[in-house]
Amino acid sequence: MAASATIQRTIYTGPFVHSLSLTELEICEKGAIGVDENGIIAFVEKELDLGAVQEKHSWQDATPVQLKGNAFFFPGFIDTHTHAPQHPNTGLFGKTTLLDWLQTYTFPMESSFTDLKRAETIYRNFVSRTLSHGTTTAAYYATIHVPATNLLADICLARGQRALVGRVCMNSDLSPDYYRDASVSQSVADSKASIDYIRSIDPKGSIVRPIVTPRFAPSCTSECLTSIAKLAKDESTFIQTHISENKGEIALVQELFPTSKSYTDVYDTHNLLTPQTILAHAVHLSAEERKTILARGATLSHCPCSNTAITSGCAPIRSLLDEGHTIGLGTDVSGGFHPSILENVRHAIWTSRHLALQSPLGDAAKLSTEEALFLATRGGAAVVGLADKVGGFDVGKEFDAQVVDLGSVSEGGENEGKFDAGPVDVFGWESWGEMVEKWVYAGDDRNTTAVWVRGRVVHRTARFEGRVVDGTATP
Ligand SMILES: Nc1nc2[nH]cnc2c(=O)[nH]1
Ligand SMILES: [Zn+2]
């Protein structure tokens, strides 16, 4: 579907659920969200019937999309950190930890992206896969290759998924000689070429934007870090990198940058900590490092599935939130074993409970369902610089949304062994709050039946199909 196709004014009626704040989830049982021709939310009503809404706003000509049954609208998920070229390795990590995982699984896979046909297959698959899980925005790491990176941006634009797309910079000899930038000047020139290309296909950055991507401190020489920070400044781009993920990695950073006070100090002294910097992991930061990151306005991507899979550690998210850090969730495929942000919502909660069990903080370490859903939506939006555009159903925001349809036992369960409506069993007596909890703890992509970005349908399933025509939702 071309991202530039026009859409019709639409009124989405039915329950909607979104975060009002970190701790408050609004559940409106009788919602009506008016979305204009540009995909912008023109009004949100909370207790009127469709006819009354049409009349109140003089929107009689708008297309209605009315949800039936145990379904609700939820904001699209924001994946603040993922590696599209690693997707074929999803689920493959054995007992490795970060540094041997990179050499064993990751660099061999990423280096194969000189083959554009292969890149196309993998990138198309991954963008479709993440959309099907309700991810409407993703901050992507690509590889060092400019043509394949540009192709990823093309695919995101064509599919209508919002994306920050980064060509990975890595020039140090941590990387094998078959997969690294030839020089600092090559690193900068290739990154600039990719930035220019991405801006040429979407000049306003409405859907895709470039992001400067030094892989992590050990992958880059000091000169490379400085030069790439200058590029980000000159080009006014976001920056993404990894920080303090694994104890062996932290020791390596100390060895490679002996005059630096800490991992954070390496980035700080190379001008890489800005309000437009996304730092993934942040598992083992010291109190001083946390203060520096906060002072610079850099934001954090929490990647709980990855932190467990490659045994990096439990990031202290509750404490980081209390200190005022801006935090979103990241799948970190394929350190992370799952492309779904919903899966990471669950694992963010599980990780916080493991911390509660093991740390003196006790219950104070626990994240609530509401908090984890906030991180997946509004928190993520703030991390990728889109807090004014997406993350919730507010007038003036763009309509990035998913339908979560839980079906009902009477629909599928009566038919032994056929659970077409997905993995959640709803018996009919649950409150909407309980249904949201059931979805968070047991739901999956079978429950995400339709997805919109800027008011345009970017994914739909057979369950929703009858109600959607040609990219425009109809009843
Ligand atoms: N999880 C993860 N950490 C990294 N640190 C440097 N590169 C990577 C990567 O690809 N994944
Ligand atoms: Zn990563």
From TrEMBL:
PANTHER family cross-referenced by the UniProt entry: GUANINE DEAMINASE
Protein name according to UniProt: Guanine deaminase
Functional note: Catalyzes the hydrolytic deamination of guanine, producing xanthine and ammonia.
Family to which the UniProt record says this protein belongs: Belongs to the metallo-dependent hydrolases superfamily. ATZ/TRZ family.
Keyword Metal-binding assigned: yes
UniProt keyword annotations, A-Z: Hydrolase, Metal-binding, Zinc
Record's GO cellular component terms: cytosol
GO molecular function, one term: guanine deaminase activity
NCBIfam families per the UniProt record, alphabetical: guan_deamin
Native source species: Epicoccum nigrum
InterPro entries from the UniProt entry: Amidohydro-rel, Guanine_deaminase, Metal-dep_hydrolase_composite, Metal_Hydrolase, Metallo-dep_hydrolases
Catalytic activity: guanine + H2O + H(+) = xanthine + NH4(+)
Cofactors demanded by this protein: Zn(2+)
Residue ranges occupied by any Amidohydrolase-related domain in the UniProt entry: 74-458
Protein EC: 3.5.4.3
GO BP of this protein: guanine catabolic process
Keyword Metal-binding among UniProt keywords: yes
Top EC class of this enzyme: hydrolase
Domain of life of the source: Eukaryota
One of the Pfam families matching this protein, by short name: Amidohydro_1
Cofactor note: Binds 1 zinc ion per subunit.
